[in-house]
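Team,

Forwarding the record for the chain on the shared tracking sheet. I've put the sequence and predicted structure together so nobody has to dig through attachments.
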Amino acid sequence: MKSIYIPQILKAPDRKIEIIINDGIAGLNTLTPVRGKLVVRHGGNFLELIVQAETIVTLTCDRCLQNYNHRLEVNTSELIWLEAIQIDNLPLEREVALEDLSETLSPTGYFDPEAWLYEQFSLALPLRQLCGENCQGAPTTETHKENYLDSRWASLASLKKILNTSEDSS
């Protein structure tokens, strides 16, 4: 996806550009291409972005560590303010008010739709990745536990075995 020169959007019909998405996004590992539609509308001093897109990603379950496929959907909108920022005179440190924490672009700059879509899909990834509601987690048999014992607990495990054998003999 190519970057869009922001003043060019003003010359488009209804001051908006519609982008049909049917491609991969750099940095986002997906099984299928990202498919959907992105609308970029110039509102004078802001860009309005509206996206409806989806893809399928492979995730790793947090409980059982198995891979599973997950449909990732993005249906969102955002306003990005257009204002010229002079970077030359900024101090190395400065306080920023809460209301100043917003996305801004230069009105004569470029908008990168691929980077914005990457951010939106990254935000849509589930925080807790579970392969299913009934995921039982990793196998918990005794032999499985012994095979994957953390070496830092080895001395405790040997002490436990000694204690168990002394109890059995009494």
